[in-house]
Design goal:
The protein is an alpha+beta fold. 14% of the residues lie in helices and 20% in strands.
């Protein structure tokens, strides 16, 4: 669960400072779990694929990722 309030749920998380390893299976529906410092971080909801040619999808990603895309 995010540490911040409903209005800004990610408040209080440290700034991103590296890479994350994604582990999972692609058969029977993709399941991918982030591993950070040797610990799995299970998603609260299922992941969904995006269309990289969709400007709205890219805008959504830009809001989640710091820096230029």
């Amino acid at each position: 669960m995010p540490p911040g309030p409903d209005k800004c749920p990610w408040a209080g998380l440290p700034a991103p400072t590296g890479t994350v390893e994604l582990r999972g299976w692609l058969d029977k529906g993709p399941v991918v779990v982030a591993w950070i410092e040797g610990r799995p971080y299970w998603p609260q909801d299922s992941y969904q694929g995006i269309d990289p040619s969709d400007p709205e999808a890219l805008d959504g990603l830009a809001e989640m990722v710091p820096g230029p895309m």
